[in-house]
Write a structure and sequence with these properties.
Elements: E1 6-7, H1 10-18, H2 23-30, E2 37-38, H3 40-53, H4 58-65, H5 73-79, H6 84-94, E3 101-108, E4 111-118, H7 127-145, E5 153-155, H8 163-170, E6 174-175, E7 182-186, H9 199-218, H10 221-232, H11 240-246, H12 251-260, H13 265-281, H14 288-294, H15 300-311, H16 315-328
Parallel strand pairs: 5-6
Antiparallel strand pairs: 1-2, 3-4, 4-7, 5-7
Helix pairs in contact: 2-3, 4-7, 5-6, 10-11, 10-13, 11-12, 14-15
InterPro entries: AraC-type_N, Homeodomain-like_sf, HTH_AraC
GO cellular component, one term: cytosol
Protein name: Transcriptional regulatory protein
């Protein structure tokens, strides 16, 4: 079964249209079916085209104007949690019920960073989708706490753009050309109580969500390994021992479980490198030599050979073809 299905509901498209977004153009560019079930590549194309033909604040306004009764199941579970930290945990746990994406919560020292990744991403998240995602998270936390919470900072992988608009909305420093798109909070906020806490509703909601999540968790082990490899891959080739340790498994158990699913660790590593290479090549911010280093290749020639095996062309030629494709949108 194909797990690469992102649902773009008619309700969301209608809200975007009310905000002045050029939904027909974006739908046509993505060749989106009437069912609203898109691949991640189609979904990203939709948002790329939307961003190019709509008001720049469309993602931020979508977050502000989405009402609680329009929330997805993961957001509802988060909103009715007892405190901010529990809300983030529930949001991350049940996010996969809303499509092939993962939300990571990284706590380092006195700060916590929240960022979302799409498992089948063909490249970086389109800027307006990033805006909508981070803004929706902040709005949910503000509604739950009843406070005008401000992040410590917002990290954005894009080049510097729309800075005044983003500063007005988020009310915090912005860090452009970051390694990820993330909302960074002070860790002390994790204990902030939620005025929207509803224990009775959670008693009904959580068991049903866990039941729906169980099949996904059972079949998502390879995706978990991919996610750990992707996080570990920053100028090194993540060893199977390090990945196993992060998953609280022995190396032998990790190899066995992957083998039972018909894949090897090397295949997972290659897939993650492949997707990361495409994501980085879609921007002009990182040159090919640096990409080779970030993906853990000893030299650029090794990266070029691997990329040619994946895509049938060189990294530079593939990047040039993406520029031509964008010019046609």
């Amino acid at each position: 079964m194909n797990g690469d299905v992102v649902r773009l509901s008619s309700a969301v498209r209608a809200r975007l249209a009310r905000l002045g977004a050029n939904v027909p153009h974006a739908t046509a560019a993505a060749r989106a079916p009437s069912s609203g079930e898109l691949s991640t590549a189609q979904f990203f194309t939709f948002w790329e085209a939307l961003g190019a033909s709509s008001p720049h604040d469309v993602g931020l306004r979508l977050a502000m104007e989405t009402q609680v009764h329009e929330y997805d199941v993961s957001s509802l579970a988060a909103l009715h949690s007892p405190d901010l930290g529990t809300a983030l945990t529930k949001l991350a746990r049940y996010k996969r019920l809303c499509g092939p994406k993962d939300m990571a919560i990284d706590t380092t020292g006195k700060e916590v960073a929240i960022h979302t990744t799409y498992q089948h991403a063909p490249g970086p998240m389109p800027p307006r989708l990033v805006d909508a995602s981070l803004a929706s998270l902040l709005v949910l936390l503000q509604r739950g706490s009843g406070l005008a919470l401000a992040p410590k900072r917002v990290e954005l992988s894009r080049a510097r753009s729309d800075e005044p608009m983003l500063l007005r909305f988020f009310g915090c420093p912005l860090r452009f050309r970051a390694k990820r798109d993330a909302l960074v909070l002070e860790a002390r906020l994790l204990t902030t109580p939620f005025i929207t806490h509803n224990a009775d509703l959670l008693q009904v909601l959580v068991p049903s969500l866990d039941q729906r999540l169980a099949p996904l968790e059972h079949g998502s082990f390879v995706e978990q390994v991919r996610a750990v490899v992707a996080r570990r891959m920053a100028g090194e080739r993540p060893s199977i021992a390090k990945v196993a340790r992060e998953l609280s498994l022995s190396t032998r158990t990790l190899q066995r479980r992957l083998g039972e699913l018909g894949v090897s660790y090397q295949r997972v590593l290659d897939e993650v490198r492949h997707h990361a290479a495409l994501r980085l090549l879609r921007t002009d911010d990182v040159d090919v030599n640096e990409i080779a280093f970030l993906l853990g290749f000893d030299e650029v020639n090794s990266f070029t050979r691997a990329f040619r095996a994946w895509e049938g062309t060189t990294p530079n030629r593939w990047r040039d073809s993406i520029h031509l494709w964008r010019d046609r949108i």
